[in-house]
Design a protein that fits this description.
Structural class: alpha/beta
Strand content: 5-15%
Largest sheet: 7 strands, mixed
Radius of gyration: 19 Å
Distance between the termini: 42 Å
Order of helices and strands: HEHEHEHEHHHHHHHEHEHE
Helix content: 40-55%
Shape: globular
Strand order of the largest sheet: 3-2-1-4-5-7-6
Length: about 290
């Protein structure tokens, strides 16, 4: 349980969130708790909600929050349901909301979760136990759906032929190594690792409906922000970042949000050297207009 997602852009999140002691903030993707704990440590009275739909993440973070337990509520759920979550918790709104997207290091490194092509495990890829596992989704999909997943979410080369091979072998794809061997049959070794990343990422996004959840979650977060409240989103995939950019741009055109950075904020070279997985991180920040 020690290999949870190492938080990226922590200093930037603290700076841009503009934390206030009488504020209430929501971390929609608690993961290993890195951002949440840092925000708690930087404040003395501010209140926080921490959401994650992975119970293993919440169990891990709960053990680290004893000294902050009066100021933080942890909630197991999907941020796409943020409006119903706050109603259940009797919360009116937020001074800041954070999304740190993608899979956690714990999910990727735990063989039994089925996220990684480097570890043999059941082909699950579920961020939540309530999600339909990948091997079942593949078995019920037709070849065109598999093609669309590979192309849309992974921009996988030769997606048509790979989709056909996966479809033809769908009832034999039970483990991550089964899927890896199928991909290996389609790509030469020098391009294999890059395309394994693409294929596994595409199927992970599809399994967890990540992009649709993001669209819903962003809109609800913006609606729940108090005037001058901040929205911070860290993404690692071009599809995610495009949704964040376009959502902020749309709400800016209708006068609800002001984008505080037109260009993405990226990790410093020193951070990438210490944490190579931070390399692809892109951060965008919006502020709720005072007149809203």
């Amino acid at each position: 349980m020690d290999n949870f997602h190492k938080p990226v852009l922590v200093d930037e999140v603290i700076s841009w969130m503009n934390l206030k002691e009488d504020g209430i903030y929501c971390d929609c993707t608690v993961g290993g708790g890195g951002h949440l704990i840092m925000m708690l440590e930087k404040t003395r009275n501010a209140s926080f909600i921490g959401i994650d739909w992975d119970p293993e993440a919440l169990n891990f973070v709960r053990q680290k929050l004893h000294k902050f337990k009066e100021r933080v509520i942890l909630y197991e759920g999907n941020f796409a349901n943020l409006d119903s979550i706050v109603r259940e918790l009797n919360i009116k709104g937020f001074n800041g909301v954070l999304f740190d997207l993608g899979a956690s290091l714990h999910q990727l490194k735990t063989p039994g979760r089925g996220f990684s092509f480097n570890h043999n495990g059941r082909l699950l890829m579920q961020m939540s136990p309530a999600t339909v596992p990948l091997y079942k989704k593949i078995r019920s999909a037709d070849v065109e759906i598999i093609y669309e997943v590979l192309k849309k979410y992974g921009d996988v080369p030769y997606a048509h032929s790979l989709a056909r091979i996966i479809f033809d072998n769908r009832h034999n794809l039970n483990t991550t190594m089964d899927l890896r061997k199928t991909v290996e049959s389609e790509f030469p070794s020098r391009f294999l690792k890059k395309n394994l990343h693409r294929v596994f990422q595409a199927f992970r996004i599809w399994t967890n409906d990540e992009l649709n959840n993001l669209r819903c979650g962003l809109v609800k977060a913006i609606e729940l922000l108090y005037p001058a409240g901040r929205l911070i989103v860290i993404s690692y995939h071009s599809g995610e970042d495009r949704i964040v950019k376009n959502t902020l741009k749309y709400f800016e055109t209708i006068g609800k949000v002001m984008r505080l950075n037109k260009k993405v904020i990226r990790p410093k070279t020193s951070e990438v050297e210490q944490n190579p997985s931070a390399r692809s991180a892109r951060m965008r920040v919006g502020e709720k207009c005072v007149s809203c």
